[in-house]
Amino acid sequence: MGKRVPGSMPGGRGPRGGAGGPGGMDMGKMLQQVQQMQAGMLAAQESLKDEVVEASSGGGMVKVTLSCDLEFKSIAIDPEAIDPEDAELLQDMVIAAVNEGMRAAQEKAGQAVGGAAGGLDALAGPGGLDALGLGGLGLGG
Fold this sequence. Notes:
It is a single chain. It is built from 2 helices and 3 strands. It has a domain at 53-109: Nucleoid-associated protein YbaB-like domain (Ybab, Chain: A). It is rod-shaped. Mean pLDDT is 76; it is low at 14-19 and 137-141. The chain has helices at 27-47, 87-116, and strands at residues 52-57, 62-67, 72-77. Helix 1 (27-47) runs antiparallel to helix 2 (87-116). The chain is an alpha+beta fold.
């Protein structure tokens, strides 16, 4: 008979009766959780195509709409914002509105994807991602 590792059970089980993965974590359960989170993140990313944000600048003279997957959807410019003598002002307002829209879309996307990845907290720490050498990825909380 071979030697038994102190604290282990016959049949390769760890001291807690789990599957004997690193730190006593059930590797099958961890893989299932990762697969569920991956599916949730894909669904969240897909739904972002239908989510839109609106932003404006110049006191509402320039309005833009973007999807949360960062696709530019529309722009509306108040005719009063069009001054042939000061095209640069209009350009600045368009840039400001688009940048604000992108920021808002990225924030909304981060919340959606972050919610889907929230289960990674359970995998962080000893016996989870740390035991696999993945703890430094910053995935859990």
